[in-house]
Design a protein that fits this description.
Length: 254
């Protein structure tokens, strides 16, 4: 039976690139995004060209725990197992602390952090089942891999991105806590703390601002979503002993 990967926030950017990568290497893929529409349809169609009917798209908001139950149920109904969860869905907010209203704060924290807990909580029983269904899995092989997309701002904080930094710092701590709790069950939990990635999330920057950021990065460029997808895929192939790590992918920036 093919392994299955769930990728939240797969309509664009890093999520789309990850979906294409996992489809290419033979996984069943579950795509998700809040707004769906043309963008999610495009990812679905790109994946279908690669892996036929081994991909489904489920539109909905991962900051809503009842939707997350539905998402995981649909994944298991479609493909019978879950091996990889990529908690990628996220939003940014750039503004002063004084301008960060209750609504903005809650939206950023719920979308970026609460969603990670909801998805993690729902996949654990299915990842545990992978080992109970097949006791021949070597101890070094993970029963499941949970990979959270964090940010360098979760490591060091960013001015004018307090809510975003808090959400990603929360992901880092949550990743380490889950890794400790789930290591006895052979489930690995790691985070990729991305630096500057060429996606819609940074389209609000002027050309001058973009070049200013790039001038601070030793690699002298933004990462492509495809590079981050490679890192995600390779992390998902690591032995279970690699767990609880915040792997920073920032071209040497921070
Ligand atoms: N780009 C960077 O420089 C950078 C750096 C560090 C970390 N990251 C992180 O990388 C992840 C992916 O971001 P990206 O750069 O690829 O940005 P992006 O192009 O803006 O994509 C964000 C994705 O998240 C989805 N999404 C947002 N809210 C959602 C919700 N409530 N439920 C389900 N899906 C939701 C969006 O879907 P719809 O809008 O279609 O609903 C979209 O597919 C985020 O967690 C981001 O914080 C990015």
């Amino acid at each position: 039976m093919n392994k299955t990967a769930i990728i939240t926030g797969a309509s664009r950017g890093i999520g789309r690139a990850a979906a294409i990568k996992f489809a290419t290497v033979g996984y069943n893929v579950i795509l998700n995004s809040k707004n769906g529409g043309e963008n999610l349809d495009k990812t679905l169609s790109l994946c279908r060209n690669i892996c036929g009917d081994r991909v489904i798209a489920v539109k909905g908001d991962v900051s809503d725990s009842s939707f997350v139950k539905e998402l995981i149920d649909k994944a298991v109904t479609a493909f019978g197992r879950i091996d990889v969860l990529i908690n990628n869905a996220g939003i940014s907010y750039v503004g002063l602390i004084q301008d960060t209203s209750d609504d903005i704060w809650q939206n950023v924290i719920n979308t970026n952090l609460s969603s990670v807990h909801y998805c993690t909580r729902e996949v654990i029983p299915h990842m545990l089942k992978n080992r109970s269904d097949n006791t021949d899995i070597p101890i070094s092989e993970a029963s499941g891999h949970i990979i959270n997309i964090s940010s360098v701002w979760g490591n060091v904080g960013a001015s004018c991105e307090a809510a975003y930094s808090a959400s990603k710092g929360g992901i880092n701590a949550y990743t380490k806590a889950c890794a400790k709790e789930l290591a006895p069950s052979g489930i690995s939990v790691n985070a990729i703390a991305c630096g500057f990635v060429d996606t819609d999330m940074n389209r609000h920057l002027t050309e001058e601002e973009r070049l200013d950021v790039i001038s601070q990065i030793p690699a002298s460029r933004a990462a492509s979503p495809e590079e981050i997808a490679e890192i995600l895929y390779h992390t998902s192939q690591m032995p279970a002993y690699l767990t609880g790590q915040i792997i920073t992918a920032d071209g040497g920036w921070i």
